[in-house]
Design brief:
Layout lengths: L2 H10 L4 H8 L5 H5 L7 H11 L37 E4 L1 H4 L17 E2 L11 E5 L14 E6 L11 E6 L3 E8 L4 E5 L8 E4 L3 E11 L10 H22 L1
Length: 249
């Protein structure tokens, strides 16, 4: 390993030997690594790649780019369902099935338990679509719990648009969020509901990405009057009562 690059990376991150070691899981040997008395472990190298998007070859070879280019990473669906030779089905992933989806994303037999249908509308032709059921309230007011979204498969991470809503399939969960593209292979998942803080993930954590194109909602409610409007109506009623009392007096 080119020790100077290991040290450069640590200093670029503004970390001490101890804090950098704790971050990559080599707390007791970071100083020894920099003095060439010890070698970086495989797990430590993987943490560097995952956490910072560092090209592992950059640490070991000359003339290599420091950061990996994740923009071309394939995030297209691993399994599709054919309605016939010319069209695809839309597979539906409900809240219960979503718990097992990340672990079975490439298991063709697992998908047999999920309902699938063909949607004969032009907008759903010539692309792969999947239906996902919404859980929680992190995307209110746009999406409510138990709503369904129909989402189009995204082929590469470079196609992500920060103005869109996506279904992001990680290795341990499925998230419905807006996505901001950061530097060094990092992405920020953003909720519409301001009660939820955004958080960062690495491109290495992403299996699939689906761009939400439409919503299916049940039990649509009448729009509620805003708090400001209610206050205004109350003020008007109070003023009306005061005028009536003044007239009587």
């Amino acid at each position: 390993m080119i020790i100077e690059r290991f040290i450069t990376l640590r200093k670029e991150l503004g970390l001490t030997q101890d804090s950098f070691g704790q971050l990559i899981g080599d707390a007791k040997t970071t100083a020894d690594i920099e003095r060439e008395k010890s070698e970086l472990s495989a797990s430590g190298l993987m943490r560097i790649v995952k956490e910072f998007g560092i090209n592992p070859l950059w640490l070991y070879e000359e003339n290599q780019p420091q950061y990996l280019d994740y923009s071309s990473k394939d995030c297209s669906p691993k399994v599709i369902s054919l309605a016939n030779e010319e069209s695809e089905n839309i597979i539906l992933v409900n809240a219960k099935a979503a718990a097992g989806y990340p672990q079975n994303v490439a298991d063709t037999s697992w998908y047999k338990q999920l309902p699938a249908f063909e949607f004969p509308i032009p907008q759903f032709k010539n692309s792969t679509y999947r239906g996902f059921q919404i859980e929680g309230d992190s995307m209110l007011p746009n999406l409510r719990a138990n709503d369904w979204v129909l989402a189009r498969a995204v082929e590469k991470l470079s196609h992500i648009n920060s103005n869109k809503i996506y279904v992001v399939v990680l290795f341990d969960s499925i998230m419905v969020k807006k996505i901001n593209v950061l530097e060094n292979g990092l992405y920020e998942l953003v909720s519409i509901n301001p009660d939820y803080e955004p958080y960062k993930i690495s491109a290495l954590q992403i299996q699939e990405v689906w761009e939400v194109s439409s919503r299916i909602s049940f039990g649509i409610e009448e729009p509620q009057e805003s708090k400001l409007l209610l206050q205004l109506k109350e003020s008007m009623n109070t003023l009306k009562r005061q005028l009536e009392e003044a007239t009587l007096n």
